[in-house]
Amino acid sequence: MAAHRLRPCVGRLFGMGPELGSGRRAYSAFQAFTEVLRLPSKQLTKLVFPLQELHGHFVPGSRPDLHLNIFHPSLEDIARAESFFTASARNRIEYLTSAVRLDHAPDLRRPEVCFIGRSNVGKSSLIKALFSLAPEVEVRVSKKPGHTKKINFYKVGKHFTLVDMPGYGYRAPEDFVDMVETYLKERKNLMRTFLLVDSVVGIQKADSIAIEMCEEFALPYVMVLTKIDKSSKGHLLKQVLQIQKFVDTKTQGCFPQLFPVSAMTCSGIHLLRCFIADITGNLKTTGFQFS
Ligand code: GDP
């Protein structure tokens, strides 16, 4: 069963035809990750540590400033983190509610992580990929122009809440800034903000506004680079280095290590799950050298 659910991602990553398994079955994340562990080491690195794989394309000794090891958990830690994202009777993962204003948001004691990004950056695809071990979770998508966009809350067991913020930029609702700003500024249990940037086009004006907002509120945030499967290796390397330089020289609150991901191939998804499990206090990894 595990093999079935995992194969779509592993398959796409290495050019096999996608083969979707039946979505409605419980299965063990450990089993699924066991399949990842059986991959040849190059392929495993590409799937689990995409930044490290990119780094391998530099001439040895040229030492570009990519921070690879600030968060570098063991494969065992990553396997443990998978269990937090695996739905079961004891670990219910589900859509909770939506809110248009912070005072409509559920009063939750659990730690929260939120995802923000421009419309079309790949946010719903990323959230679906993160929840691929809980196939019954219904990821809410509202894209119709004129529809009020909402903040969507997802419960991940007893461990944390994942919050999907409305996309900004093109066709953002007028009250969007108020809604997002208030949430980011006032949400007490918000542990980390994941700011998504499209790796194909790099940091755009709307992204800069979001970055300024995170900086102004002194939020701890993380830059996630989406759609890494779409570019040539050379283009991706160039973008990653530019964004890394920006993070190193122009930001204070941004976590120095970038998280490149592809919702299409699942590259970087396991590492991101592990990071989320760790920063919400659920997993004490051995790989954290900075917080
Ligand atoms: P959102 O508006 O930020 O929620 O963006 P979506 O998740 O709806 O993605 C916008 C478009 O980008 C869709 O056509 C997706 O299929 C595509 N997309 C999203 N993530 C990826 C990815 O990792 N790789 C590729 N190739 N396309 C992606």
UniProtKB/TrEMBL annotation:
Keyword Magnesium: yes
InterPro entries according to UniProt: EngB_GTPase (IPR052279), G_ENGB_dom (IPR030393), GTP-bd (IPR006073), GTP-bd_ribosome_bio_YsxC (IPR019987), P-loop_NTPase (IPR027417)
Pfam families xrefs: MMR_HSR1 (PF01926)
Entry's Gene Ontology cellular component terms: mitochondrion
One of the record's GO molecular function terms: metal ion binding
Gene3D superfamilies reported for this sequence: P-loop containing nucleotide triphosphate hydrolases
Residue ranges annotated for the EngB-type G domain, each copy included: 109-282
Assigned keywords, A-Z: GTP-binding, Magnesium, Metal-binding, Nucleotide-binding
Membrane-spanning intervals of the chain: none
SUPFAM superfamilies, sorted: P-loop containing nucleoside triphosphate hydrolases (SSF52540)
Keyword Glycosyltransferase included in the entry's annotation: no
UniProt family annotation: Belongs to the TRAFAC class TrmE-Era-EngA-EngB-Septin-like GTPase superfamily. EngB GTPase family.
NCBIfam families per the UniProt record, alphabetical: GTPase_YsxC
Name of protein: GTP-binding protein 8
The species this protein was found in: Ovis aries (Sheep)
